[in-house]
Design a protein that fits this description.
Shape: globular
CATH superfamily: NAD(P)-binding Rossmann-like Domain
Strand content: 5-15%
Number of strands: 7
Strand order of the largest sheet: 3-2-1-4-5-6-7
Distance between the termini: 37 Å
Number of domains: 1
Order of helices and strands: EHEHEHEHEHEHHE
Helix content: 40-55%
Bound molecules: NADPH dihydro-nicotinamide-adenine-dinucleotide phosphate
Largest sheet: 7 strands, parallel
Number of helices: 7
């Protein structure tokens, strides 16, 4: 199995894309490290993975906390001796129209979607440099390519993640053999929209045409594809959308 003995930290592992990715990577031999704030859900996931013959440990933490990340990485190194990869997946999407001035939600998106990614990179980079290789995958979005109503701040955060990934790749891949991938999904069926509080956005979304969205497993497959290439291959961007999405 391509990922045997690779230790990979997945943020936002308690649901949706992160959870599906944990199952997928563990089924290909990776030691997965499950990070999110909901400890109970992570423990259930750990049990499901180990019951299936996989390897998983729980590192409960908030990605906005540099200390939580550093503690998590130290625990991983103690358990497995090294870190091989990080999937910066934790994120939230409380869409709203700018004139509503939901500034707390704007700042929360900046803290989790952007600063959370920066904290993750800062925490694992010394370990990856020590190993002279590794892989960082950042979950950006179709929102990095185009604005959609209510998404001014969310789209800005995902554009930041996409461009940061390109900078990381250019700085880290040639010099240190650390590959970097930005995954940019369109609509995926998860609980991501549950944080929306703007009534106008909610109404707009209810009125949207039904379409067949992607499943979290589809993104897990794209992550696995990017991770399982030979070290000489850097998959830069994966822009993956539902066939029915315009
Ligand atoms: P979910 O809501 O199912 O998952 C979000 C995950 O992020 C949860 O595990 C949550 O765990 C975690 N999370 C949120 N805040 C924090 C925090 N402060 N610290 C640690 N973990 C946190 O949504 P998705 O699976 O859809 O989202 C995963 C990523 O995919 C996000 O970055 C999202 O922007 C991106 N994406 C999703 C798309 C979609 O259509 N669903 C499309 C394009 C991109 P907990 O609450 O336990 O901390």
């Amino acid at each position: 199995m391509e990922l045997t003995n690779k230790t990979i930290i997945i943020t936002g592992a308690s649901s949706g894309i992160g959870e599906a990715t944990a199952h997928k990577l563990a089924s290909h031999g990776a030691n997965v490290v499950l990070m999110a704030r909901s400890e109970d859900k992570l423990q259930e996931l750990q049990k499901a993975i180990t019951d299936n013959g996989g390897k998983a440990i729980v590192a409960t933490g908030d990605v906005t906390s540099k200390e939580d990340f550093d503690k998590g990485v130290a625990a991983v190194v103690k358990e497995y001796g090294k870190v091989d990869g990080l999937i910066n997946n934790a994120g939230l999407m409380p869409l709203s129209f700018v004139e509503k001035l939901k500034t707390d939600e704007w700042m929360q998106m900046v803290d989790v979607n952007i600063k959370g990614v920066l904290n993750g990179v800062a925490a694992v980079l010394p370990e990856l440099k020590k190993n002279k290789g590794g892989h960082i995958i950042n979950i950006s979005s179709m929102a990095a390519h185009r604005y959609f109503p209510g998404g001014a701040v969310y789209c800005a955060t995902k554009s930041a993640v996409k461009m940061f990934s390109e900078g990381l790749r250019q700085e880290l891949a040639p010099e240190y053999g650390i590959n970097v991938t930005s995954i940019e999904p369109g609509a995926v069926s998860t609980s991501l929209t549950e944080t929306i509080t703007d009534e106008d956005v909610k109404e707009m979304m209810e009125g949207m045409q039904e379409m067949t969205t992607l499943e979290a497993e589809d993104i897990a497959n794209a992550i696995y594809y990017s991770l399982s290439q030979p070290a000489r291959v850097n998959i830069n961007d994966v822009y993956i959308v539902p066939s029915e999405q315009k």
